[in-house]
Amino acid sequence: MRRALELARQAFPLSDPNPRVGCVLADADGRVLGEGFTQQPGGPHAEVMALRDAAARGADVRGATAYVTLEPCSHHGRTGPCCDALVAAGIARVVASLRDPNPLVAGQGFARLQAAGVQVEVGPGAQESREMNIGFFSRMIRGTPWVRLKVAASLDGQTALANGRSQWITGDAARADGHAWRARAGAILTGIGTVLEDDPRLDVREARVARQPPLVVVDSRLQTPGSAALFQVPDRPVWIYAARHDAAAEAALQSRGATVVHLPGDGGKVDLAAMLRDLAGRGVNELHVEAGFKLNGSLLREGLVDEFLVYLAPKLLGPGQGMVNIGPLQELDAAVALEFVSVDRVGADLRVLARIPGR
Ligand code: AOF
Ligand code: ZN
Questions:
Q1: Minimal CA–CA distance to 100: which of 66, 140, 135, 67?
Q2: What is the mean pLDDT of the segment spanning 112-138?
Q3: Which of 65, 68, 212, 229 is the most exposed place for a label (fewest CB within 10 A)?
Q4: How many other C-beta atoms are found inside a 10 Å radius of the C-beta of residue 354?
């Protein structure tokens, strides 16, 4: 299963929005007969890749065990059911990390395998597989992406000086690491404030990618300038969420290749919860947020943030701009409670992954 999890990691971000799944076929002595991982959407799943690999090696898989990091599918999607392919090949036993939360599968894959006389075990590798597919699980179960808010700050939690200067607080290694997190996301989100102040590209430059994640801009009043640097990234979809109609502004943005989506909420602002549902509908599993104090605060206060990816530089900036607008609070009890998932050194900086408890 460890090898299957390693294979699953190779499906990043190729398989997106399909889950990252790995499969190893092994005989009773644990000898590997075939290996595979999920290909691009519409392409073969991990199990089919492993069966093909075994065939290419001339290995006999009858009576073998399939180790797979997610329940083999039972449905006819863009590809045929993997459990039928495993049964047809004579696989005797399936060890799977997790049940597939996709309502089209959800236990039916296991049931079909058992009905065909295949022995089924579930559990090994569950935690790792779930972490790898945290966005897929979120989209399938909640109907919204997993929302990860990225921040670079000083040790005293400041993301900019009082005069607005913010480049660069963290070092090269943290920047490259941040790009690797952008690369695994189904989309990157920012706000109009950041677009107007920083004019960022918000693409993946420091990691190898087959495709640039779509960029989402929360721009209630359609103020994104046609000259913004974000339009200079070739073949990268830009989705602008607005609250008000403005035919001229919309036409200008569409001529730059952007898609404009209207989702009016309270106070002339974009309905952020509705936006997340819309993004799930577009196949976004993990949403990587790089926005400012205000939008970060709105997302958090509406309960839409799942975790924080914070890079902390070993420096103090004094009073400036905080990470997220939640205050001022009157009571310590009112603090937003988080759990640390991991703390790592990245170059000269720290990377802290912290999660809202229960997510
Ligand atoms: C598997 N093995 O490697 C993956 C699975 O449209 P399709 O046919 O590609 O089906 C996509 C669904 O298949 C996806 O939503 C998830 O439920 C399952 N993914 N299943 O047996 C795999 N990636
Ligand atoms: Zn499948």
A1: 140
A2: 97
A3: 229
A4: 18
Q: Which of 96, 186, 104, 98 is nearest to 147 (CA)?
A: 186
Average pLDDT over residues 112-134: 97
Contacts of 219 (CB under 8 A, 6+ apart): 191, 192, 195, 240, 241, 242, 270
Distance between CA atoms of residues 14 and 20, nearest Å:
9
Counting ligands in written order, which one lies closest to the CA of residue 68? 1
Q: What is the pLDDT of residues 187-196, one digit of tens each?
A: 999 999 999 9
Among 5, 9, 12, 18, which is best to mutate for testing ligand 1, by the most ligand atoms less than 8 A from CB? 18
Q: Which atom of ligand 1 is nearest to the CA of 136?
A: 15
pLDDT tens, residue by residue, 228-276: 999 999 999 999 999 999 999 999 999 999 999 999 999 999 999 999 9
**Residue whose CA is closest, atom 10 of ligand 1?**
77
Task: Indicate the DSSP class of residue 270.
Answer: B
How would you class 138 by CB atoms within 10 Å of its CB: exposed for 0-12, middle for 13-18, buried for 19 or more? buried
Residue 18 near ligand 1, beta carbon < 6 Å = yes
Question: How large is the C-alpha radius of gyration of the chain?
Answer: 23
Token pair in block for residue 269: 């602002």
- Chain-centroid distance of CA 342 in Å reads 17
pTM: 0.95
